[in-house]
Design goal:
alpha+beta; single chain; three-stranded antiparallel β-sheet; 15% strand
């Protein structure tokens, strides 16, 4: 989910929202379209097979469990929300740990100010470890700053995905409309 590029989609359009959701749900859900025995007339006046949709919940070890629309409604409105919340909590915990480690490093290295100010190596830390941490926490473009920005970006992205999902799937009718769009209009053969 964190690998989704939100700039690729304009979710104001239904088909782009469908593509967005299919991509976001790819680690958890597989959609498969099929032709039914029933026929319908298309806009050109031709008799064509009516489309059907199979939904599979991806389990561990590559196992897929077939679910119906009620199972999908449960997944999208309850389980998927929980998954996003757990991922956000994981990133928030990671952010807190990174910030606490930096505060600790700042405390132990600034407490022993040398004669010229700045930082000094604590007695119980090797020079190699001190140098590595100085490089990691160092400047504005340090690995620490890059890591903090990446974690914050993932948190914001999960929040944005949550807002989009909620806005377009908050009612059962919204979810059923989404499934009908997947069934009738999603291009399962698109080259991405």
């Amino acid at each position: 989910m964190e690998n989704i590029d939100l700039t690729k989609y304009n979710c104001n359009y239904e088909l782009q929202f469908v593509q967005f959701m299919v991509d976001v749900l790819k680690p958890y859900i597989d959609f498969q379209s099929f032709d039914t025995e029933e026929k319908r007339i298309n806009l050109a006046g031709e008799s064509v097979p009516k489309k059907g949709l199979r939904i599979f919940l991806k389990k561990e070890n590559g196992i897929q469990e077939s679910i119906d629309e009620n199972g999908f409604i449960q997944f999208i409105q309850v389980d998927f929300s929980t998954i996003r919340s757990e991922l956000k909590e994981k990133y928030t915990d990671e952010l807190t740990k990174e910030q606490e480690k930096k505060r600790h490093f700042d405390t132990i290295t600034r407490g022993n100010m040398g004669p010229y100010g700045g930082r000094s190596k604590p007695h119980d830390m090797s020079k190699t470890e001190f140098d590595e941490k100085m490089e990691y926490y160092g400047s504005q473009s340090s690995e620490y700053e890059k890591r903090i920005r990446a974690i914050n970006y993932n948190i914001r992205k999960l929040e944005e995905i949550g807002k989009i999902c909620y806005g377009r799937t908050k009612t059962i009718q919204d979810v059923l409309h989404f499934l009908n769009n997947v069934k009738d209009h999603y291009n399962f053969n698109a080259i991405t």
